[in-house]
Design goal:
By secondary structure, this protein is of the alpha/beta class. The longest helix is centred in the last third of the chain and has 22 residues. It binds NADP nicotinamide-adenine-dinucleotide phosphate. NADP nicotinamide-adenine-dinucleotide phosphate binds next to helix 4.
């Protein structure tokens, strides 16, 4: 069976880049396809302090560069393109991208997840005008200004901590009466004097006002106390939303998934489709961490090599 590559990896976050490195080290012709920037969600994190082996916080950007350098060192190739479709026929995968169609014997899906939007009035209209999903990207625009952060998970806490270095007026609202975030992180947020935590508080609406150039920007929010039902308006310059993520599973509508849309695999990271592996945030699991994504990428690559050996002598 002659294919363009042995394995095609879709997605260039921690899982995809670890898969690219490990596939190449296994002697496979590996190509990683990424539509945006290599690094995935890690790029949004200013200081990663829990990645093993990095006792000093490392930026997501730097870690992504290290992943890429290491994968390239072992021979992995990279293509910047969007994957439009993925089809398997007679043990060959056909991957159609915006830069051409490629074939491979195995595919590792590591497409990750995208930010969940809340769907409240004003959110879409004011996105990029005070509504943001990335503190390190947009936080500096709101230095010393009031910022509302929405969410109670690790991302909301991490990003509130980041924003608290830019402004002393951070209000973190969460719809429930307790955090979902890891305790160590939540405790740090609670102890931060620049962050006011308001639990049992939901975002109902985001309002904007035109500035002197006629451009509408966030000016206030409508908040609701979920215990009393009371709603009130509060002025703010920005709203940063961290309400979890939606798995990027569109390429594989027929592959079994959990109720949240994340792909189910066996312990070798293989999906119900032979030769199709999944790793990282797109894969179903109870805990999402960079270290877990990278480990899954490595395991998926190893399993892909075993699978390829099992079906044929690949062209290398
Ligand atoms: P998450 O853990 O799913 O938390 C999402 C938060 O948004 C939850 O608090 C949830 O509220 C809230 N939320 C969801 N939909 C909402 C809505 N419609 N209105 C209001 N609030 C809403 O997502 P995440 O924080 O992005 O984390 C994703 C994964 O990445 C997790 O596994 C996390 O551990 C990991 N992560 C780890 C780190 C780290 O280790 N430093 C950093 C970032 C992310 P409820 O709690 O009420 O459901």
């Amino acid at each position: 069976m002659k294919t363009d590559k042995d394995v095609i990896i879709i997605g260039g976050g921690a899982a995809g880049m670890a898969a690219a490195q490990y596939s190449s080290r296994e002697g496979l012709k590996a190509l990683l396809v990424e539509e945006m920037s290599l690094g995935g969600q890690a790029l949004l994190i200013e200081g990663i302090e829990n990645y093993p082996g990095c006792p000093e916080a490392v930026s997501g950007f730097e870690l992504a560069e290290r992943f890429e350098t290491q994968a390239r060192k072992f021979g992995a190739e990279f293509l910047y393109a969007t994957v439009k479709s993925l089809v398997k026929k007679d043990n060959v995968f056909t991957v159609e991208t915006t830069k051409g169609t490629l074939t491979s014997l195995a595919v590792i899906l590591a497409a990750g997840a995208k930010h969940r939007h809340l769907g409240v009035p004003g959110e879409e209209k004011l996105a990029g005008r005070g509504v943001s999903y990335c503190a390190s990207c947009d936080g500096p625009f709101f230095k010393n200004q009031k910022i509302i952060v929405v969410g109670g998970g690790d991302s909301a806490c991490d990003e509130a901590m980041f924003l608290s270095k830019l402004s002393s007026k951070i209000v973190l609202i969460h719809r429930r009466d307790r955090f979902r975030a890891q305790k160590a992180l939540a405790d740090r947020v609670l102890a931060n004097k620049n962050i006011e935590v308001r639990l049992s508080t939901a975002l109902e609406e985001i309002r904007g006002k035109a500035n002197d150039k006629g451009i509408e920007k966030v000016s206030s929010v409508i908040l609701k106390n979920t215990l009393t039902g009371e709603t009130y308006e509060e002025e703010t310059a920005a709203v940063f939303i961290f309400a979890g993520s939606l798995p990027s599973n569109q390429l594989v509508p027929d592959v079994p998934k959990d109720s949240g849309g994340c792909i189910l695999t066996d312990e070798k990271m293989e999906t119900a489709t032979g030769g199709l592996f999944c790793a990282g945030d797109l894969r179903s699991k109870p805990f999402r961490q960079l270290v877990i994504a990278a480990a899954e990428g490595a395991l998926a690559a190893h399993s892909a090599a075993e699978y390829i050996d099992g079906i044929s002598a690949p062209v290398r």
